[in-house]
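For reference, the entry.
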Amino acid sequence: MQWTEKQMEDWLKPSERTLIDEHGDAILLEQFALFWEQFDELVEADHFTEAELIQFGHDTVAEFHFPFNLAIQDAVGHLYLGRFGDDST
């Protein structure tokens, strides 16, 4: 699959969202559009809840000592590939 330069630029635009964890606490998170697209697809496909994805981010922080904003990128990216990745490449 090929993407245009415009599509790639659009994926790199940052935006902020407030997420709610399993304890009802709000987390303000700034990420790129591509992350939010993957995050939303995982939630909308009923693979995970928002709170579960946040917890996977915290688990990644504990395991690899990444800052949370990078840890949740890592966790969502791996989960996304595991659910929607193309094994033929």
Observations:
- The chain has a mean pLDDT of 93.
- Residues 68-84 form the longest helix (17 residues).
